[in-house]
Design goal:
2 copies of one chain form a homodimer.
Chain A: H1 2-8, E1 23-24, H2 35-51, E2 54-56, H3 59-67, E3 71-72, E4 77-79, H4 82-91, E5 96-98, E6 107-109, E7 113-116, E8 124-127, E9 131-134, H5 137-149, H6 167-181, H7 193-207, H8 212-215, E10 222-226, E11 232-233, H9 235-246, E12 250-254, E13 258-259, H10 267-288, E14 294-297, E15 301-303, E16 310-311, H11 315-331, E17 335-338, H12 348-363, E18 368-370, E19 375-376, E20 381-383, H13 384-400, H14 408-411, H15 413-419, H16 429-432, H17 435-438, H18 450-455, H19 461-474, H20 483-498
Parallel strand pairs in A: 2-11, 7-18, 8-20, 10-12, 12-14, 13-15, 14-17, 17-18
Antiparallel strand pairs in A: 1-7, 2-4, 3-4, 5-6, 8-9, 15-16, 19-20
Helix pairs in contact in A: 2-10, 2-11, 4-10, 5-6, 6-7, 6-20, 7-20, 9-10, 10-11, 11-12, 13-19
Chain lengths: ~500, ~500
C-alpha cells in the first residue's frame, strides 16, 4: 500500500519516511503563563462554576448534573460543586489510543504524541480549477482521498460541508465516503442522537464489530463539539457529549471564545471563560462514564476591532494557544489546538499566519492539531491548494521533530579533513553515501533559482499546488477493503436512507 | 518623532506600542540537542582545532595566533591549543550594549534580548513597481528609510548592494546614507582595512567623537564576516576580525556551512564545522583584544540535492538554528541567526518558510535575527514587498513576546456574569474601555471577509504590500540631525572620494 502510493505519488514522496505516520514531539512545551497564573485561572473557573454556573439547554444533561449534586435554577443554570469538577478531572484519561480501520493508522493522543488533522467544517470549497463555490459530497470525497494520500495526516476530518446532500442523510453519505476512501480514523458529526448512532453503526460494520460494549471499549472515531459561548451548552452539543461518553468515543470540547465578541476582550478573560466551559463539558462526560475519553479543545482568538470580523492567525490566538496548552496539562487531558489564518487566498499572509499558529500549537505541546491542512478564510472555505501547501508544512514539521543524530559518523570529522580547507563536499564519500535521503524533499515548495523559476512560467506556490492535488487525485489508491464489508456498509446506508435517514431532532 | 510618524503612517501604526523598540523574549529556548551532545560537539571542535586546525590566509592574523602559542605550518594551517580557545571563550562578553546615534535606539544583545534586523547583502532588488533588477544606492536608501520607519527593526543592515556606486567609494556613500536617513545602529561593510576605517571615521563624526579610544569604549556599529567554509579565513575577513576587535566594535562570525556543499551532508557534521570556524574566529578577536564584542553567527542550511542549489527555510535549517543557539550559549556569547526562504516571490512558500525559520531563531533564543525583513530568493534579492510583509511578522512577534496579564480585572468574571449565557461582549463596558488597543492591528494582513476582499479587487498580500511601502516612503520623516554634523559627514565623504576612496586591497 505504502510502497505503491510512494511510487505513484506526483512528487515521489519517499516511502521510507515512515515516522510521518506517528509523530512525537521532543520539545519542552512553551509556557506563556506562570504556574501560579495557570492555577489562578483554573481555581477561578472552578469557583465560577460553583457560584455562577453554566446554562444547559438539554434536560437529560441537567438531570445528569443534578444527579451528581449540582443545583439547577429556573434559568436552566447548572451550578457545579468544586468537588464534582475536580473528581471529573481525575477520571478523565490523559492518554488515548484511538483505533482506525487500519491498525497501522491507530492514533495515540496525549503525552508527547502529535496528530495533525485536516480542515473540518467550512461550507465553501475553493480551488484554482473550479473557483470558490458551495461544497458538495464529491468535493468532500476529494479531500478524503487527499487525506488518505498523505501519511503525515493522522486522521480524517469533515473537510468541506457536503451541502448538496439533504441533511437527513448527509451524515450517512459522509460517513460511508470516509470509511470507503480512507482507512484512517473517521470523524463523526455531532449533530443529534440518531445521526451519531447511524455513524457508529457504520463504523461497527467497518470494524466487523456487532456488540456495542465491545465497540465502546476503545475509541474508533472522533467528534468535536463547540459550546455556545458564553456559558451555554445547547441540546445537540450536550447530547453529543453524553452519547460519545456512553459509547466510549472521544469527544473534543471546544468553546468558541472569540475575544471581544463571545468572550471578554482581554485574553485572560477569554481563557477563563474557555476553561469554565471546558470544565463543565468534561464534567458532564465523566459523570456519564468515568474515564470517558475527552480532549480539551481550545479555539481562543479575537475579533478584528475595525470590522468586527473574527480574526485568526493573530498573535493573540498564538498566546491563547500556548496558555490553553498549559491549562489542558493542568487538567491532565490531551489538548486540541488548530492551525488557522484569516487570509482569503493562498498567499503570503496565509503562509505566515498558518505557519505561526500551527507552530504555536505544536510548540505549545498540542496533542491534536485540527485544521492543519486546507483551512482558509477564517474557516469559511476549504481550499485544495491550501491543503497541499499545508501538507508541505506538516511534512516539514515531521522532519523538524526528528532528532539530530550526534555520533562520530555523523560528525564527519574525517570527511572534513579529507575535503580540506576551501574545498567542497559534493564528491566526498560521506556525501555520496547519504545525499539521496539526507534532506527533506519538498512536495510543492520550489528550490530552483530565479532564472529556472522564470523559465518555468513564474508559477506561484498556489499554482504549483493546483497541479499537485490534481496529480495526487489522479494517482489516488483506495485502501483495501473487504467486498462484503463495503457492501454491508452500502446496504446500511441505503436502508437508513429509505427509512428517511435522521431528520433534525 | 514617534508621535509624528505614528500620525503620518499609512496604516496608523500605534505609537503606544513602544515595547517594539526593545524586545525581550520570555520563552525558554527550545533544545534539539542534549547537554551531552552540545558538549560533545564543542569538545570535538576544540580538539579538531588542535589536531587539524584551520587555514588562515592573512599573515597578520597568523602572527597573532602564533604569538599566542599556535603552530603554523607551510600550508598556512593554524593549530590552536585548547587552552587558548577556552581562554578566548572566557573573555568574550555574553551581553553587549550597542550605542546608536539616537540613544533611544541603543540595542542590547544577549540575555533574553532580541534584535530584529533587516536583510543584508543581496545584489538584486525586486518590487512590483520596478520589477527585479540590480540594486542601486537609491534602492538602498529606500530600504534605509523603511528601516527607520518601523520601530520593530532594531538596527540598520546593508539591504541591497548599491551596485551603481564604484567599489572604492561605495562604503562611503552607503555609510553616509545610513547615518543621514536613520538614527539606528549603523552596519559597516567588512571589506578591507581602509574602508572600515573610513566608516568608523564617519560614525565618529555622527557621534561627535574625536578620540579613537573613546570611540572604542563601546560598540557603535556592527559587521558580519563569513568564513570561507570549510576551514578557511581569508584576508579581508580575518582583517575585519582584527580591526573590529581593536576598535571595540561588534563583529559577527558566521561560517557559511551549507550541508552537502561547503559542509558535510549530515547536520551534526555541518554544526561541528560551523563550531570549529566560529571558535577560531572568536579566538582571533579575543587575542587581539580580550573582551572584544563578538557574536556566534550561524547560517547552517543545506543544498537541494536535486538541483545543487542552496536551500533556505528548510527543516534542516530550523534544526540547525536550534542547535546553533545551544552551541552559542555553551560558549557564552550572543547568537546571531536569520529568517530565510528560498521562494522567488512573495507567495505562500515565502510566508511558510520565513515564518518557520524566523520562529526557529526566535524560539531557539537568538539575540540577533538578521534578514528578518526583505530577504528573498535565498538571499539574492531584497524585496520591498517582502520587507513590508516581514515587518508585519516582526510586529506580530513583538506582540507575541508581551505577557498575558492575569489579574482580576483582566479575568473579567464580572463582565462574563454581566453578559450572561448566550450573550455577547460587543457592548460590555469591559470591552468598550479596551477595544481600541486590545488587539494587534495589522499593517498589511487583511481581516475583511471574502466578499469585502473581492469588492476591493482580490488583492494578494504582495499587492497590498506594494501600496504600503510606497505610502511609507511618501510619509517618511528623516531623523533629526545637526546641520554641522551632516555637513561634516558630507565633507568627509567628499574628501575621501576626491582622494580616490579605498580601492580593493
Amino acid at each position: 500500500m505504502t510502497r505503491r502510493r510512494a511510487r505513484t505519488d506526483a512528487k515521489g514522496q519517499a516511502s521510507e519516511r515512515s515516522y510521518r505516520r506517528r509523530l512525537t514531539n521532543p520539545f519542552e512545551p512553551l509556557r506563556v503563563l506562570s504556574d501560579d497564573e495557570v492555577a489562578y485561572i483554573h481555581t477561578s473557573a472552578v469557583r465560577y462554576l460553583a457560584d455562577e454556573g453554566i446554562r444547559v439547554l438539554f434536560d437529560e444533561a441537567r438531570d445528569i448534573y443534578s444527579g451528581a449534586g449540582a443545583s439547577v435554577d429556573d434559568d436552566l443554570i447548572v451550578r457545579l460543586d468544586p468537588d464534582t469538577v475536580l473528581a471529573a478531572i481525575d477520571t478523565a484519561p490523559s492518554l488515548l489510543e484511538l483505533h482506525a480501520p487500519n491498525p497501522e493508522r491507530n492514533v495515540v493522543v496525549g503525552g508527547n504524541h502529535v496528530a495533525l488533522v485536516p480542515v473540518g467544517g467550512p461550507p465553501f470549497i475553493s480551488d484554482l480549477v473550479g473557483g470558490r463555490r458551495a461544497g458538495t459530497l464529491a468535493d468532500q470525497q476529494d479531500f478524503l482521498r487527499l487525506t488518505q494520500t498523505y501519511d503525515v495526516l493522522a486522521a480524517t476530518a469533515p473537510s468541506v460541508e457536503p451541502g448538496d446532500v439533504p441533511l437527513a442523510v448527509r451524515h450517512l453519505e459522509s460517513g460511508l465516503s470516509t470509511l470507503m476512501l480512507t482507512d484512517k480514523l473517521p470523524f463523526v458529526y455531532a449533530r443529534g442522537r440518531q445521526r451519531v448512532r447511524d455513524n457508529i453503526d457504520l463504523i461497527k460494520i467497518r470494524h466487523g464489530i456487532v456488540d456495542d460494549a465491545e465497540f465502546a471499549s476503545v475509541s474508533r472515531c472522533w467528534a468535536n463539539i463547540n459550546t455556545n459561548t458564553p456559558r451555554q451548552l445547547d441540546v445537540p452539543m450536550s447530547m453529543a457529549i453524553i452519547d460519545f461518553a456512553r459509547m466510549g468515543q472521544v469527544c473534543i470540547m471546544t468553546p468558541f471564545t472569540l475575544a471581544g465578541a463571545m468572550a471578554p476582550v482581554t485574553l485572560a478573560g477569554a481563557l477563563v471563560l474557555q476553561h469554565i466551559e471546558v470544565l463543565a463539558a468534561i464534567t458532564l462526560a465523566q459523570l456519564v462514564r468515568p474515564g470517558a475519553p475527552v480532549m480539551y479543545g481550545a479555539f481562543t482568538s479575537n475579533v478584528d476591532m475595525r470590522s468586527g470580523s473574527p480574526a485568526f492567525g493573530t498573535p493573540e490566538a498564538m498566546k491563547g494557544a500556548l496558555a490553553s496548552g498549559q491549562l489542558a496539562r493542568h487538567v491532565g487531558v490531551p489538548w486540541r489546538s488548530s492551525g488557522s489564518s484569516t487570509s482569503n487566498t493562498v498567499d503570503a499572509q496565509a503562509g505566515y499566519e498558518t505557519m505561526a499558529n500551527t507552530y504555536a500549537a505544536l510548540l505549545g505541546g498540542a496533542s491534536w492539531i485540527l485544521h492543519a491542512a486546507g483551512w482558509q478564510e477564517g474557516g469559511l472555505t476549504a481550499s485544495l491548494e491550501k491543503f497541499v501547501v499545508d501538507v508541505e508544512m506538516c511534512q516539514i514539521i515531521a522532519d523538524l521533530l526528528q532528532p539530530i543524530v550526534v555520533d562520530d559518523v555523523e560528525l564527519a570529522l574525517d570527511a572534513i579533513t579529507e575535503v580540506g580547507p576551501g574545498g567542497h563536499f559534493f564528491g566526498a564519500t560521506h556525501t555520496l553515501e547519504r545525499y539521496e535521503t539526507a534532506f527533506y524533499e519538498p512536495l510543492v515548495f520550489e528550490r530552483t533559482n530565479y532564472e529556472q523559476w522564470a523559465e518555468h512560467g513564474m508559477r506561484r506556490t498556489d499554482e504549483r499546488a493546483a497541479a499537485t492535488w490534481q496529480s495526487a487525485l489522479d494517482s489516488y489508491v483506495p485502501p483495501p477493503i473487504d467486498d462484503t464489508v463495503a457492501e454491508a456498509m452500502r446496504a446500511f446506508v441505503d436502508r437508513r436512507t429509505a427509512e428517511g435517514g435522521a431528520p433534525p431532532d
